[in-house]
Request: fold
Amino acid sequence: MSGKEILEWVAVLLILFGAVVSVISALGLIKLPDVYTRSHAASKSSTFAVLACLLGAFIYFWTVDGYVSVRLILGIIFVFITSPVAGHLICRAAYRANVPLAEGSGEDELKPLLFGGEGLTVSPDELNKENEK
Amino acid sequence: MKETILLLALLLFMVAIALLLYRVIVGPTMPDRAIALDTIGVNLISSIAVVSIILSTTAFLEAILILGILAFIGTIAFSKYIERGVIVERKGDS
Reply:
């Protein structure tokens, strides 16, 4: 088995690994109880799957055609920059749109700070004053 | 053998997209649907890479970049709509 063939196999197995991780991520989106845990499953493992798959494609084109694809590297970098930002923004929007946490999520410390209400040790006005100082 | 493994990977991506479509249709809240649509976009990116390997062409690689950008912009627009109720804020609005 020559070195070129070994690299091809590495690329193909990376792609298969990425596909399996992607299915696991989709199963997480089906099974987990609320938006925040689903966002965890989606953003972490699908970013990982896309990294494995695009890296496999890059290695494959490099070894078979001798073609170094800048577009694939740009795609990897772009997905890695944007996927956490998108996950964070969706979670923030979901929290501000009053999507409830799942049962048994434990204590929610952000709620009195954002929406006021009981259980508040510092009032929002005092907090704003402290921030201005 | 390699062809079979690549086809199997493509099949797995299709299974993942089908599972995510369930979440898009059923999903109890709007952020659920936005997250699932974002993940469908990411899965489409990887499956385009696999398709371009199977067809042994590099012509589809631009589609990867464009699809990544469109999925990101779409998710940002959805999250802003869910949070504020508008997408483009103008100065006259309040």
Remarks:
- Chain A is about 75% helix and 0% strand.
